[in-house]
Amino acid sequence: MIALTCLITVTGIFNIAATNVTSSMTRNVWKNFRTVLVSGLGLGLYYATGNVELGEEWRIPNSFFVLFGFLVMLCGAYLYYRNDDDLPDWFVKVKGYFGCGRIRGYFIS
């Protein structure tokens, strides 16, 4: 129990440090990529060993829903970090309408 408490404390300290260096959005994107890594390792371990206790098999249609969610997250991260000058004008207008992001150097609140 002490080890779990220490692990949670150290994780929290690293999360705060990561937020100070980058931003909370970047930290959350990396946390989501960690989920992708864990899912990939689980699939790899299952198919490498065949042991259900070590990993998880690909299940239809549930695994496709998870894959779709990961793809949506990747597309969202790409659009968030992409320069607004490279985006089509219609998308920049929509993005500005919803009040999210930076448009042509101005921050929208």
How would you portray this structure in words?
- This protein has 109 residues and is mainly alpha-helical.
- It has 4 helices and 2 strands.
- It has a two-stranded antiparallel sheet with strand order 1-2.
- Strand 1 (102-103) and strand 2 (106-107) form a beta hairpin.
- The longest helix has 26 residues, at 24-49.
- It is flat.
- Mean pLDDT is 76; it is low at 103-109.
Entry summary:
The chain has helices at residues 2-21, 24-49, 62-81, 89-97; strands spanning 102-103, 106-107.
Order of helices and strands: HHHHEE
Radius of gyration: 19 Å
Q: What is the general shape?
A: flat
Helical/strand content category: mainly alpha
What labels would you give this structure?
109 residues, mainly alpha, two-stranded antiparallel sheet
Helix and strand arrangement:
Blueprint: H1 2-21, H2 24-49, H3 62-81, H4 89-97, E1 102-103, E2 106-107
Antiparallel strand pairs: 1-2
Helix pairs in contact: 1-2
